[in-house]
């Protein structure tokens, strides 16, 4: 089942169309990464999904329900979000902040304690939030969002500003949510290599448009995976395999990726021509490098 689906969704400000998504789907039980540079439209898309910002054109479906005024409250009960940073009262304790969430969501203390335990703040709730580290504040924001265990969690740049240890902790927390608690997650980020470590599928956004939607591995194969061979004579091997239009980079022969059976044939051809093959492997560019090539951006 699709937990989120956008159909012909546009967001228009004046004469400017800042989001134009023909179709975007997120499956139940997955972690979906919406990635792109700052200003690409990621936060705007998330705000429309959460009904913080109104859709100019098109339709949004959450849990197979069309998002409209009569279904809005019921849908929002099954959603949690953390967009543009967590909202909390710094002069209150973590426990007091969570009690406010309890009252707003009409939950009991058991549900609040469950969320606190999930994010690993059980022993930090008596501290004032102003004394929390950035990572603890982010955990508190996630606890607020998942209180009551919604079916869908929306996280905007959840690791932004964290140190490597904090990023790793938040990443592992997010990865646990679908597996242990049945919470589907949509995250946005411009830190592409970080997203790659936790998501099942990605949507690449640039200038409000969806350039790619699918798995990370499929994207890499479609946009840059190569078969790399280290041989005893790369120049001769390049000539023997001339129909592949290969290249030699840093003493490695690279040809377009081929099926397993054809890999065997390539190696056998070289061996028959007295070329020794020392190593064969897939050479795949990082997600960030592929993104820069796809969008023509000099940096993220």
UniProtKB/TrEMBL annotation:
GO terms for molecular function: ATP binding; ATP hydrolysis activity. Residues 4-232 form the ABC transporter domain. InterPro entries: AAA+_ATPase, ABC_transporter-like_ATP-bd, ABC_transporter-like_CS, P-loop_NTPase. Pfam families: ABC_tran. It comes from the Bacteria. The keyword Transport applies. Keywords: ATP-binding, Nucleotide-binding, Transport. PANTHER family: ABC TRANSPORTER, ATP-BINDING PROTEIN (PTHR43335:SF4). Belongs to the ABC transporter superfamily. This is ATP-binding cassette domain-containing protein.
């Amino acid at each position: 089942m699709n937990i989120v689906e956008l159909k012909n969704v546009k967001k228009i400000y004046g004469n400017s169309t800042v989001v134009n998504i023909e179709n975007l789907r997120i499956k139940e039980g997955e972690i979906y990464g919406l990635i792109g540079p700052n200003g690409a439209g990621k936060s705007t898309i998330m705000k429309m999904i959460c009904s913080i910002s109104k859709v100019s054109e098109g339709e949004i479906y959450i849990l197979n329900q069309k998002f409209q005024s009569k279904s809005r409250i019921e849908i929002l009960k099954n959603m949690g979000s953390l967009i543009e940073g967590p909202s909390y009262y710094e002069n209150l304790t973590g426990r007091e902040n969570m009690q406010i969430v309890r009252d707003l969501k009409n939950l009991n203390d058991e549900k609040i304690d469950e969320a606190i335990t999930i994010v690993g703040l059980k022993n930090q709730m008596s501290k004032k939030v102003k004394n929390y580290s950035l990572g603890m504040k982010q955990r508190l924001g996630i606890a607020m969002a998942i209180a009551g265990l919604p079916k869908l969690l929306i996280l905007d740049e959840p690791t932004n500003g964290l140190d490597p240890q904090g990023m790793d902790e938040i990443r592992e927390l997010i990865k646990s949510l679908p597996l242990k608690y049945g919470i589907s997650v949509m995250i946005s980020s411009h830190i592409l290599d970080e997203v790659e470590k936790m998501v099942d599928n990605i949507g690449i956004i640039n200038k409000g448009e969806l350039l790619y939607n699918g798995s990370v591995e499929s994207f890499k194969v479609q946009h840059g995976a190569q078969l790399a061979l280290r041989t005893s004579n790369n120049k001769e091997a390049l000539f023997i395999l001339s129909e592949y239009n290969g290249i030699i980079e840093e003493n490695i022969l690279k040809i377009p990726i081929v099926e397993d059976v054809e890999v065997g044939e390539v190696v056998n051809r070289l061996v028959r021509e007295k070329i020794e093959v020392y190593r064969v492997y897939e050479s795949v560019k990082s997600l960030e490098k592929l993104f820069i090539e796809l969008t023509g951006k000099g940096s993220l």
